[in-house]
Write a structure and sequence with these properties.
Elements: E1 10-13, E2 43-52, E3 59-68, H1 69-77, H2 81-96, H3 100-103, E4 126-134, E5 137-140, E6 145-148, H4 149-158, H5 161-172, H6 179-187
Antiparallel strand pairs: 1-5, 2-3, 2-4, 4-5, 4-6
The structure holds zinc ion.
Length: about 190
């Protein structure tokens, strides 16, 4: 994966889509280590997973978290090499050639459709959004991405059992997140890598 376009990316205001449900404002701390994301000099990622109620079209958050780079590296280190190489080749096959250029610098417009399948967001009942941030700004470039939940499922299948076990161990080291969120993380693992 390239250098995440940190140098090439533009800084934008954080879109409301990435706001934390609990306080209706942007994430202020890493969900995992509680590091202050605004004063820290690290970039961080936010993933939010939505489910649409087909009866009224209302969007509900399934899970959401912010993860600082230090925690993300820890998470990566908890993954087996087999899983990482599976995911890398999946990403190269599915992402990089097709939509990356379209996504570049399009900011919030990239929420129109799934970056992998190209399915329109209005046709999706479940999807995730992922963005990269620095302090109180979003870095647009490779991110933000919208992914339909089927992609998450496909990526989960690429994870070796070893990685799943280690990832569960990683989740078990986190004490401060609500138990129901922890269970969600374990059964429906975040797709970010
Ligand atoms: Zn952290």
């Amino acid at each position: 994966m390239e250098n995440h376009d940190f140098e090439a990316g533009n800084f934008e205001d954080i879109p409301v889509e990435f706001y934390c449900d609990s306080n209706k404002s942007s994430f202020k701390e890493c969900t995992f280590c509680k590091k202050n994301l605004i004063t820290s000099s690290e970039t961080y990622l936010i993933e939010k997973s939505f489910k649409i109620n087909p009866n009224n079209g209302k969007k509900n958050t399934v899970f959401e978290y912010a993860i600082c780079m230090s925690c993300n590296i820890k998470k990566m280190n908890a993954m087996s090499e087999e899983s990482i190489s599976n995911i890398k080749s999946y990403m190269e096959d599915n992402f990089f050639d097709k939509e990356l250029e379209l996504n570049a610098n399009s900011g919030i417009n990239s929420f129109d459709k799934c970056a992998v399948t190209g399915k329109k967001v209005k046709d999706l009942l479940e999807y995730n959004i992922i963005g990269q941030f620095f302090a109180n700004k979003m870095i647009s470039g490779y991110f933000p991405l919208l992914l339909s939940s089927e992609i998450g499922g496909e990526i989960q299948e690429l994870l070796s059992q070893k990685t799943k076990d280690e990832f569960d161990d990683f989740m078990n080291t986190i004490n401060d997140i609500p138990p129901e969120l922890k269970e969600l993380f374990k059964t429906k693992r975040p797709i970010l890598v």
